[in-house]
Each structure stands twice: as structure tokens, then as C-alpha cells.
Amino acid sequence: MQQEFQLIGLMDAVEKWNGKLNLISFKSRKELDIKHVRDSLSLLNVFELEGGQRVLDLGAGGGFPGLPLAIMAPETEFVLVDSTTKKMLAVQEIANELGLENVSTVAERAETLAHDDRYREAYGLVVARALAPLPTLLEYAAGFVCVNGMFVAYKSADYEVELEESETAMEKLGFEFMGPVEYALDEDMGARSLLIFQKIEALDDKYPRKSGTPKKKPL
Ligand code: SAH
For ligand 1, atom 6, which residue shows the shortest CA distance? Predict the structure, then answer.
């Protein structure tokens, strides 16, 4: 019950902040709920988040999927990362208002933070939604996932081409594709998928390449 109230509080906060800062786009409260909050929670149909586990949300923007997940998994520690400082300040404030003690934020680019020892290959689970095409995304994520850890990309239903284009990236970064989980949003709001990858090898020091390169020249 408390969690349902927190989800409502999250939507109130996002609506309030969106006037000042474009955190996330939605046309109605229902769309915010189904396309963003419920979509974020789809991970929980696949993974059971445990106490003491640490999850990193890469390119978290206005806090999705990290904040809804942090509400539903209060014993799990969430680190939300985004290169835009203003967004991370807003997200930290929202988390504090909601009393989410399991959320911290870092304003930094993925390519830089992944070379920091405190973050490098330090997470058993990394998630990202609407951040970049898959080959680029895999290079951003690889720096944070520990060996045997998982990376989950929230994608649309059309992931086949992106996946085919990621063969080289997967091989160079030590990722193995475990499969898609396809699902439909409520009220016919669209089809989505979670693409699940396991990191099977330690990452070469040269990855991720310097800021901007994973996007300009995907592997
Ligand atoms: N995950 C959120 C936001 C998606 S928008 C959601 O689903 O709503 C993508 C976000 O990624 C933006 O906020 C942008 O600032 C951030 N971003 C883009 N490139 C990045 C990089 N290289 N490192 C970290 N954050 C990045």
C-alpha cells in the first residue's frame, strides 16, 4: 500500500518538475502511469530484486526505470546515472521527497564513469531505457556490469535489426544474448521488450572508448 502511494507521489512530483525541466514526455496522467511507471516495473516480471543487491540505471533521465523500481524494491540499492546534472539533481530531490533511502544519483557520462574503479564492473544488474541504439548502449553498459552480471535494455518491439547490428559489439565486450522478453503495455499503449544480456568475460581496459566515440563509431 505504501508503495502504491509512493508511485502516485512519484507521478505528482514528475508532473510538478516537468513544468521547469523536461524530465519525461507524456500527454496524460494515464500515459505517464502506463507508458513510463508500469513499463519501468516490467523488469520485476523477469528478475526478483533482492536485499543488498545493487542496480545501476544508466541514462536515467527523469528517473525511469530507476525510481519506480526503487519504490517496489526498497531493500535494493539503486544508483541512477545521467550526464545531465540538472536532471540528476531533480531526481535526487524527488527520491528524497518520497523517502527513498535506497536511491543515489551520479551526474556523469557513462564513458567516463565506467573507468572509475568504484563503478567499473561493480554491478550485478544494469538497466537502461531509451538511451541509445543497442551497439552504443552495450558499450556504455559493459563498463559497469560485473562478470556473470546482467544487462537489461528496455526496447520497443522492433529490436531485431538493432540486435543483428550488435553482433560485433557483443563479441568485443563479452556479452551473450540471453533472450528477449516481449510484453504489451496496458490499454493497447504499445508493445515493448526487455533484451537480456549476460556479461561472460572481463572487459578490456580500452572499453568504453572515449566520450562520444561509442555513439559516433559504434563497434
Ligand atoms: N531512461 C530515461 C531517459 C531517457 S533519455 C527514460 O526512459 O525516460 C536519455 C538520457 O540519457 C538523457 O537524459 C541524457 O542526458 C542521457 N545520456 C545520453 N548520453 C549519455 C551518456 N553517454 N552517459 C550518460 N547519460 C547519457
Answer: 64
